[in-house]
Amino acid sequence: MRTACFSVLSASALLLHRDDVPSWACPNTAAAKAASQDWLVSGDAAEDLADGKAIEAAVATEQQGVLADAKAWAAGAVKDVAAAQKHLAQAASFQKQAAADKSDAELKKVGDEIGQAEQEQEEAATLAKKANAATKAEKAEAAQELADAKKLEEAAAAEKAGVVAMDIPALLQAEKATETQDTFVAFYAPWCGHCQTFVLQQNGGLNQLATALSSAKNLRVAKFDVDAEEIPSEHGYAVQYIPTSYMICPGGKKTKYSGGMDQASLVSFVKANSCKASVP
Predict the structure, then answer these.
(1) pTM of the model as a whole
(2) How far apart are CA 86 and CA 101, in angstroms?
(3) How far apart are CA 20 and CA 232, in angstroms?
(4) What does the alpha-carbon distance between residue 48 and residue 229 come to, in Å, rounded to a whole number?
(5) What DSSP designation does 166 have?
(6) Over the stretch 114-145, which tens digit does the pLDDT of each residue have?
(7) Which of 31, 140, 172, 232 is a plausible cystine mate for 13, CB 3.0–4.6 Å?
């Protein structure tokens, strides 16, 4: 199981053999997508930043409510315990008086009251334990939601790092002979853990590559969301796993990347397959 894809693949997904999917990629299948994590990075900076801030605000409000509820529960439990202890003390006093009077009826009554007081005390203690457990669970959930919000904000920041988002018209335009620059494009999906690491994170490999090649002339680094657009396979783009990257030259020449995800290999590939670009 490839943990970064968050999935146990179905038999149909296994038609794409494990050997065909690099260790740094996710199978581009419906099964892998369906089993992915619940929160998704959209790839849109404004939307991801807004989502992250909204989650943080909601969690803050929820935490205030949780703490208020916990305090109320705890206060109620303390009162219940105090009342039970008072009841128990009164019952003990009655028991002593009844023993002095040697009244069987009074002794039975006092015994019943003692039993009731002990039950009330036990119920109050149980309530206090439940309040404490509920508070811990709410805090853990809030912490997870905050972590997800931070990831969304990190992805939003990555959107501003210089990587261009492409759709099908832009992708096909990059192939035209009239274009004056080469394009390195990574096909990805927001649900894929490897794509989040390489494409969407602020310090991910694609943004690092864009920074490393920022002084290159006639070159752009781009990304293509396969969830938002159909893969133009009829134009020669084979995307069995994601991320999948291509170097595109004006005139239609395209070269699929098959190396490792380290920066040295990526830069070397761009240099070796450039047509218009001048890479230092």
Answers:
(1) 0.54
(2) 23
(3) 20
(4) 19
(5) E
(6) 888 788 888 878 887 887 787 788 788 888 88
(7) 31
